[in-house]
Amino acid sequence: MRELDRLFERYLDRAWREAPTVEREVFLRLLDIEDDRLWHWFMGHETPSDAELDTLVQRIRSLPPAG
């Protein structure tokens, strides 16, 4: 989904370089999740049961859009 790609690009552009190794590993795990599930998480309709994934989803959602 293009919208998810944009969210991930925003994270990669703004947070990846400074992210600790643990957070980077969680991001890589996030990439293995099916798009439909990711969409529900990022739209706030559901939350991941994994606390690390939930924290990262919330962090990515809170990044401001490109201006």
UniProtKB/TrEMBL annotation:
Annotated keywords: Chaperone, Cytoplasm
One GO biological process term: succinate metabolic process
Domain of life of the source: Bacteria
Annotated localization: Cytoplasm
Family membership noted in the UniProt record: Belongs to the SdhE FAD assembly factor family.
PANTHER family: FAD ASSEMBLY FACTOR SDHE (PTHR39585:SF1)
Biological role: An FAD assembly protein, which accelerates covalent attachment of the cofactor into other proteins. Plays an essential role in the assembly of succinate dehydrogenase (SDH, respiratory complex II), an enzyme complex that is a component of both the tricarboxylic acid cycle and the electron transport chain, and which couples the oxidation of succinate to fumarate with the reduction of ubiquinone (coenzyme Q) to ubiquinol. Required for flavinylation (covalent attachment of FAD) of the flavoprotein subunit SdhA of SDH and other flavinylated proteins as well.
Protein name: FAD assembly factor SdhE
Gene source species: Marilutibacter alkalisoli
